[in-house]
Amino acid sequence: MSAPAARPRPTALRATVLRAERLTPTLVRLVLGGPGMASFTPSEHADSYVKLVFLPSAPAELPLAPDGRVDLDAVRAALPADQQPRLRSYTVRSFDPQALELVIDVVVHGEDGIAGPWAATAEPGDEILVVGPGGAYSPAADADWHLLIGDTSALPAIAVALERLGQDARGHALIEVHDTEEEVPLTAPEGVRVQWVRRGHGVVGLALVEAVRDLPWPDGVAHAFVHGEAGTIKELRHHLRAERGIARDRLSISGYWRLGADDEAWRAAKKAWIGAIEADEQAAGLD
User: Fold this and answer.
1) Which of 72, 106, 187, 214 has the maximal Cβ count within 10 Å?
2) CB-based contacts of 78: which residues, under 8 Å, 6+ apart?
3) pLDDT digits (tens, 9 = 90+) for 130-148
4) HSE-up of 11 (CA within 13 Å, CB side)?
């Protein structure tokens, strides 16, 4: 029996902030580029994402892998435990291979978090490390209609998916925001209704769940993309699987974040969280 292939050493590209734009009070668009992005290979998926690498402190010179990218394992080995790189995932809004420009939209909530405060003050010339891309979802061509659900964290992926739908596509897109100031222009086929769900000062996700429950349900087979706060996603998953009968293979669903948990804590708990949900569905006889 042959030995398993060795895991490739994780590497990152060096990117430079080219432009920054405040789209809404809570959403900043960053355009990243520079010669370090020359080897970036875009993903075909609508939910394509990259991870930005934040270094509380960095070696005087970042160690490089043989391919010229930054060697993240070597970076970790050079830093103490309390100064390790911290990664944050963001949807690729677009990538221009000729101009080598990668566009991402970052949610900003004051001084909370790592990426948000950085994005809020980012200026041309600032540097950041980029890992990826990854991704798994694209709108299914054989779907009778499409369902796109999320909060602001999922807005970039929903925007990309809407742009990729055929002009004859049917469906619904529901996006929860705080108020009208968080709404952005979206391009969607005429047959796809975009609904902004404004929660105001209400509980995160509550208005979104209610809006989905009240949704007129079209005939035919749906393909759904549902992402956002973990507690909200758990409720929506039960509704869509148990009450609406959407099969697992027709549903891209995940908690991008969780109320009361930072990214590291949520990633540490997420696998068990998913396992518990799947066990409950199996016990309920769902496919």
Assistant:
1) 106
2) 59, 63
3) 998 999 999 999 999 999 9
4) 18
